Amino acid sequence: MVLQTTDVTAPAVLLIPDISGFTQFVQATEIAHSRHIVEELLEKLIEANSIGLQVSEVEGDAILFYRFGGRPTAEEFFEQVRRMFVNFHSHLRLYETQRICQCGACVSAHELTLKIVAHYGHITQSKIREHVKLFGQDVIAVHRLLKNNIPQHEYALFTQALADEWPRPATPAWSQAEEGSREYDVGRIDYGYVSLAPLRQLVPEPRIEDFSIPGVKVHVFSCEQQVRAPLSLVFEVASDLPARLQWMQGAKDVEMLNHHFNRLGTKHRCVMEKDSYIMVTSGITRGADTITLTETDEKRAVCTVCTMRREQETQTHVQIDGFVKNDLVLRALFALLFTRRLTGRFQASTEKLKVYCEELYRRQRA
Questions:
Q1: How far apart are the first and last CA of the chain?
Q2: Could you give the domains of the chain?
Q3: Considering the entire predicted model, what is its pTM?
Q4: Which of 111, 223, 275, 321 has the least CB density, counted as fewest CB within 10 Å?
Q5: How confident is the model at residue 1 (pLDDT cuts 50, 70, 90)?
């Protein structure tokens, strides 16, 4: 381990975007998904960097950014805030429009909020290999500012030290700046702040991409199974892509290709004994007693539709149907080579799904 420390202090911008709003989840699925959601959001905040900020460290649900040199202009700062806020909430919109999972973390993700605090001061840094650690009273100060008397849940706070060279009043076009002051253990800090709520109207509606097979589809196989477990549990298992290893006949691995967990547009590679294929989660419909999950191959030629229907409170009917694009060559190829094999594979898979879900339900009740 190589530690490099310098006693020289230098002026720097310090900025912390902080995510809040998640409750404490109990189930393992919710804990894992909440962690992945926050990780995705932190990545979106880093991608929104437009003023040359460097990442010092990720601190739970927040990031400590810094930039040596002069202060940003008011226009640069407020544009940076706008970019971070819009990136953040644009990503959260996906959990409203493309969500598959019904766990508490995914369902409540849209309630997450963002606040940003920024300061200008003098810092010292040390380096441990590629990692940078910041030190100094101003580093302490910017962290203290996360606790304040601002009434809004979403705001951008900037200290007087940061805004010292800005014209007065320093305020963006989308919100009126207010002033505040608070005594901390590092002394009294004067600051301004703006509500970020008006920026919500700038968050675009997500683009819903169509992953389904175009045109007419032809039915090529079907299998079904009765499962003595609630619909919610069966759906949770069937839609959990890594869990396919527990019940998908012949599956050797499931590789998540573009998302941490399943939602519309998620691609995964299913590695079988002799081959592998990439599937895209292309559709989800929910009714009072029925959930349908559709997956389409990346070439949009073949799809499977898994329909789960509640028959009793603790009994679910599962049916998996296969369809192909209405192409003469493809239909003939399936009839000759694939239909019998796929029917056998999916029938065996539904039998394993039944055993797995029923055992999981039995353990939950024990």
A1: 49
A2: 3-202 (3.30.70.1230), 217-365 (3.30.530.20)
A3: 0.83
A4: 275
A5: very low
